[in-house]
Amino acid sequence: MNAQKKERIAAYKERKVVGGVYAIKNTLSGRRMIEATTDIRGSKNRFDFAQKNNLCVNKKIEVEWKRWGAGSFVFEVIEELEKESAQTLEKFQADVAALKELWLEKLSGEDVSR
Fold first, then answer.
1. pLDDT number for residue 18
2. 1 domain-assigned
């Protein structure tokens, strides 16, 4: 294995893992779909790709996506959570899921889908 490849592998292993809670919001109706992820950047990238290619990102919003178009939706980060170095993936997933439940409680009076 060459040195450059080893450096890239080491950088990947040392990167910050950031998850959290995000919303995909319909800017016309105001409805938001709240989701949680262990990779907020990856979720944003998937949303951007789907929006550019007019591919719906989630079955929960497919009807509105087809009705109003991809341009009617935005990706909003609600809260980020950084994985601690000693934290297991399972524990991190549980923490992100708990954070989502907290936000669903906070937003319970609003037009939110799970």
1. 95
2. no
